Amino acid sequence: MADFDFADVAGGTNPFPVADSRAIPAARYFDAEFFRAESEQLWPKAWQMACRLEMIPEVGDWVEYTNLGKSVLVVRTEGGISAYHNHCRHRGVPIAGGTNPGTGGNASGNCRHSGFICPFHGWRWNMEGENTFVYGRQLFDEDQLDHAELALRKVRVETWGGCAFINFDPDAPTLRDSLGPVLGRLEAHGMNDLRAEWWFATELPANWKIAMEAFMEGYHVMMTHPQLQRAVPGLYNARYGNDTGGIGLPIDPDQSVADNIKAQIANLELLSTGMAGMCHAKEVEIARALADAPLPATVAEAVPVWWGLVQEAISRKLRAAGENVPDLNAVAQSDPVNAVEYLFPNYFLLPFFTSMASYRIRPLGPETCLFEIWSLTHFAPGKEPPPPLVPTVLPYDSQDFPMIPRQDYSNIPLQQRGLHSQGFDFMRLSGKVEGLISNYQRLIDLYLADADGATRAAASAKLGGNFDGPILPLT
Ligand code: FES
Ligand SMILES: [Fe+2]
Asked: Whose CA is nearest to atom 3 of ligand 1?
């Protein structure tokens, strides 16, 4: 396949490039030099989800975002959203927050009247980033205190999907150009109007990519989330095959329509409780009320008709309750979404009916990452709950995590350990359903090879919709 020609790249920055698209070298998940290459070549050029916007509703509200030792302040100003490198222009102290890099920052406050005040010698800046005070000004030469030059250094910021995204690269393509049609698809599904209902975080002893890749295929469901496969075996068997080695459930060809609908409802209940809201309780309730709806006589005909009825009822009833939700049947036709939608490099969404789960994963070191989950849903205007300003941080094996992520977390640290086994050289990927892992890894290689922004953006746009998909040529 005609991929990017790495031979053209002045080398040395990527010690373990993906040479065979079906084989991902194990060292990419723990090698310190590879981690350094990502820190220098990937993260500073990628759009990073920095915060949810409901955290900063008022002018002057700010929140700190950290990644790999870099700290950024995202501020709501009169004109919109601004972002600044979080360091004092005097001697470098973070001017706000700065105390909690290991858990992702998350300091917050309001600077509308106070401005930002450096805790070391008290220099000040307003929310527009302008310097407003230098203590003992006469102690400095005037040419050291040029007003424009003393301003806080700006970081590029764009808003989308209820979030602020930052990018340290002045030359990076825009967020929309970088990510492609996936953004429009999620907007059609009401993404811009969602708000966080809860926010959990955990530190996982695994490379950030291992954690990301645990959500790039549904091939693991049969073994990792057996209750999901058992609820609707037809869905999984149709995709991955009937032969589950006696572990999963085969499709029952004699299942009645009524039993199948019961199973569909049980599956929605599992998704709702197991994900604590990705399929929201209010939506399950609406589906349950349609358990006895008149349906065609065969399962094959009845199931899509039932889903259409459920989606219609959810849209109608939630709109009647004042929520700005999409017409689910219309957007299923016009803008179909995938079970998981990825926004390279470290943010992804699991859309389901009108609600979504949203995940962000940041590296804390070569073999540690910070893993966050938000449950997102719509609220009628005026009925929004106060937004969570910090995540509830739990150990990854906490029973307080919803069941499905807990099942995913149970594999991730083990897999990280397995990578170090003698004789384990590479991930052996299915080119049919684990393609996204390969495509992601090869896009990382494009960054490490310093490919130009347009090449990176074109490759990144191909990843949208690639969940459970094939290995693709990226360039
Ligand atoms: S380091 Fe900030 S005022 Fe001195
Ligand atoms: Fe999973």
From this structure: 121
